[in-house]
Amino acid sequence: MPKLSSLSFYPRYCFSASPTYNTWVKLTAAGVHALTTQPGFEGQTRSSFSRKYKIGSADIRSGQKVYFHLNHPIQWIRLVGVLVAFDEYPNRWVMILDDGSGETIEIVCAKQQNASTPAVADHTAATEQGSSSTRCPSTSTPTLTAPSRIGRTATGYEVDMSRIDLGSVVKVKGGIGEFRGAKQITLERINLIPTTASEALAWAELHAFHTAILSKPWTLSTTDIQRLKEKEEDKDGTAKAKRRKERDRTRRLKAHERIQRERERERERQIEETRRSRPVAEKDKKKKERKKREANSSSTSELTRTTTMTA
């Protein structure tokens, strides 16, 4: 694995091009604990992925960090494992998930404080398969559940905990938090895994994701970085107009320079033609003068001869 000192950590405006920032990153509990942080990446996070999956709203956690695997920015995690502890407190549930990676991790979900909420979607349907791990759960047909088993995630999302208990094999999705220096998952989604085949499929997805993406550093070309920077600046509209004005000015300057070069080449051509034609003109002039002298000489000789004969 490359050393962190040799990796390039790109600015935040490049994160939209990352294969890990806007997705549920499939990791193990040990992998989550191994994630690192980098200075300058603290603060609020709100991505297109958050809006698409309704993760993140006006009450999104302030101060949420961005974590890194190599130089991959990560904010959302998917885990698969068995719940080996399930503790209920007056205002939250705290679960411990063991996925066989050598470490366990806490899963935290706050309870719904407003017990008058009429209905929430059942997100623990036993029929959900592993292949739907990143699909937004449908809320078009809500299932009424007991208010005491309704959880509210850190981003305000409601989740049904009625089927979750000690020993459940679950697929968990959430953000990354810390408590007393230890990483934990702040719950956003939780689904029961009904069969061994579904669990095996989830593990196969994790392996494929690690092989294809997490096993090597994330790289961007200089062109990609510049494009992403311009896209970020375009959000307020002024940068785009400024660049368009600059491009028009550059285009006009280039056109003026091209015209000047053409004029210069034309002057040089005329000068060269004049220089080449000058010796020919001089030669013709000398030839005419010589013919004139010869003609004058012939006339003088004829006149002399005529005078002599007359005399």
Order of helices and strands: EHHEEEEEEEEEHHH
Helical residue percent? 25-40%
The end-to-end distance, rounded to whole angstroms, is 126 Å
Q: Largest sheet, described in full?
A: 5 strands, mixed, barrel
The proportion of strand residues reads: 15-25%
With strands numbered from the N-terminus, the spatial order across the biggest sheet is 4-5-6-10-9
Looking at the structure, what is the overall shape? rod-shaped
- Average pLDDT works out at 78
Radius of gyration: 41 Å
**Count of helix runs:** 5
Count of β-strands = 10
From the helix content, strand content and strand pairing, which structural class follows?
A: alpha+beta
Low-confidence stretches: 44-63, 115-147
Question: What's a concise summary of this model?
Answer:
The protein is of the alpha+beta class. 37% of the residues lie in helices and 21% in strands.
Overall description:
By secondary structure, the chain is of the alpha+beta class. It contains five helices and ten strands; from the N terminus they run βααβββββββββααα. β9 (169-179) and β10 form a beta hairpin. The protein is rod-shaped, with a radius of gyration of 41 Å. Mean pLDDT is 78; it is low at 44-63 and 115-147.
Write the layout of secondary structure elements.
Elements: E1 25-26, H1 29-33, H2 48-52, E2 67-69, E3 72-74, E4 76-89, E5 92-98, E6 104-111, E7 150-152, E8 158-160, E9 169-179, E10 182-192, H3 196-214, H4 222-233, H5 238-310
Parallel strand pairs: 1-4, 6-10
Antiparallel strand pairs: 2-3, 4-5, 4-9, 5-6, 6-7, 7-8, 9-10
